[in-house]
Amino acid sequence: MAISLKAGLGKGVVSDIISGKSANPGIETLRAIAGALDCELADLIAGAPSPSSGKRTVVLIIGGGIAAYKSLDLIRRLAERGVTVRAIMTKAAQEFVTPLSVGALTGGRVFTELFDREDEHDVGHIRLAREAEAIVVAPATADLMARMASGRADDLATAVLLATRAPVLLAPAMNPAMWANRATQRNLATLRADGIRFVGPNRGEMAERNEVGLGRMAEPLEIAAALGALFGGGALAGKHVLVTSGPTHEPIDPVRYLANRSSGRQGHAIAEAAARAGARVTLVSGPVSLPDPPGVTTVHVETAAEMLAAVEKALPADVAVFAAAVADWRAASPVGAKIKKDGTGRPPPLALAENPDILATVARNRDKRPALVVGFAAETDNLIANAGKKLKAKGADWIVANDVSAEGGVMGGEDNTVHIISAPGGDVRIEDWPKMSKTEVAARLVAKIAEAIAQ
After folding, report:
1. For each of the chain's 455 residues, which pLDDT tens digit applies?
2. Measured on CA atoms in the order 30, 36, 42, 46, is the torsion positive or negative?
3. 12 φ/ψ angles, rounded to the nearest 5 degrees
4. Taking phi first (over 0 means left), then psi (-120 to 50 degrees means alpha), and beta for anything else, what does residue 5 get?
């Protein structure tokens, strides 16, 4: 919370600012900082708890890619969490951001040369490697990954990486074609086998015009959370987070079922972001084509009844996020054989029964209700009004409302535009978030969750 203290605001006042209760004059300073950094005010002041009780020293290696500009925000995010950053910039990185900018944020010297007269008299690259409690490479370019995989040490960055005994976290960033290339995937497999940790890449728009795909660097909040998990003490360390994701399939006969277009991307992204923040995560997933998120216990189910049973088995939890698009209805009497046409042209009778309400069941569980229950409202009309009704009817703490009408492309898409609805003390509050990738929504939601349960 270093920035808030500079603005003359206490921690309690910061919480009031986030919730909109306070009009402290110091907020104008924060708004000015947020504007200069092109970020949201809540993001600026909602820093999660420090990864540990003491100061951590991390070496940040900035590679040469357009995403290098995000390293400036990453330095600030780490400083908010009590992390001292020592920066190394490759020659290519200096084409995108300057050592002066990086040094202004780290408050120390930026290291750029392997053969530096001042540093190498005491074998400076070994000293940097030994003093670091972790090394973060962001952005990690295809070239830098290739040189790491082959054991090169021909510049300061790779020499430090080869000499360190500390854990290493890479945030890859490159064009989707480069990421998908077999050579890069071989290097990725080699580095994983060597114990290197990864965060990202994400799917989204690239710097190149009309380029979209997997290769976008993880957001600074995600990287900071992943580092916290690496230290074993992220913002959600020691917490159990339960997440539901995907659709449910309700059988009509052995080959047909009732379902919806949910891809599970948002729920899976939330589970992965929570794991990176240090939480123990249980993901209850309906049928999706996505891989299980790393570091997450995933339970696969088909129907709403199975999802409810898995959720109740996973309790107790500190936080529950119900992102699954559970079918409201099921066939009242599924049949054991495929239903045939009878030649009359009339459809067969199909009686429906209402499925269990998983969100309401957990929110009203007196014995095992999580401290924070978050539901999702997927609506095609009257978004805010319908989501507000759901908040009250289900007994949730927050509702994440999103428009799933066909024009929005949210169902099955890569991006999302959400509104966070809550009613602390009975006063309805609405936070409107801009359009973001689902990964970015997940990172921001997990940061908000960490802030809420820390209070």
Report:
1. 333 333 333 334 334 433 444 433 344 444 444 444 444 444 443 333 333 335 788 999 999 988 999 999 999 988 888 888 999 999 999 999 999 989 999 888 888 887 765 554 444 557 777 788 889 999 999 999 999 999 998 888 998 898 888 889 999 999 998 999 999 999 998 988 888 888 888 877 777 677 778 888 888 888 887 787 777 666 888 899 999 999 999 999 999 999 998 999 999 999 999 988 888 899 999 999 998 887 788 999 999 999 999 999 999 999 999 999 999 999 999 999 999 998 898 999 999 999 999 999 999 999 999 999 999 998 888 999 999 999 999 999 999 999 887 666 667 678 899 999 999 888 899 999 988 889 889 999 999 999 899 87
2. negative
3. -65, -40
4. alpha
Distance (Å, whole) CA 146 – CA 141: 9
**DSSP assignment string, 122-186:** GTHHHHHHHH-SEEEEEEE-HHHHHHHHTT--SSHHHHHHHH--S-EEEEE---HHHHHSHHHHH
The two three-digit tokens of residue 31, written as one number: 């708004």
The alpha carbon of residue 255 and the mean position of all alpha carbons in its chain are separated, in whole angstroms, by 36
* Three-state secondary structure call for residue 169: strand
Is the Cα torsion angle 264, 267, 270, 274 positive or negative in sign?
Answer: negative
Report the relative pairing of strands 280-285 and 297-300 from DSSP bridges.
Answer: parallel
Q: How many CB atoms lie within 10 A of CB 357?
A: 16
For helices 220-230 and 438-454, what crossing angle results, to 10°? 60
Of 24, 175, 181, 260, catalytic: 260
**Encoded amino acid at 381, one letter:** D
Residue 24's region, left for phi above 0, alpha for psi from -120 to 50, else beta, is: beta
Is residue 176 within 8 A of residue 206, CB to CB? The reply is: yes
Residue 139 and residue 170: Cα distance in Å, rounded?
8
> Quick check: is 260 catalytic?
yes
Nearest C-alpha neighbor of 356 from the set 333, 328, 378, 337: 328
**Beta partners for 330?**
353
Q: If you ran DSSP here, which 8-state letter would residue 69 be given? A: G
Residue 138 and residue 65: Cα distance in Å, rounded?
A: 9
Tokens of 123: 């074998």
- pTM for this entry: 0.57
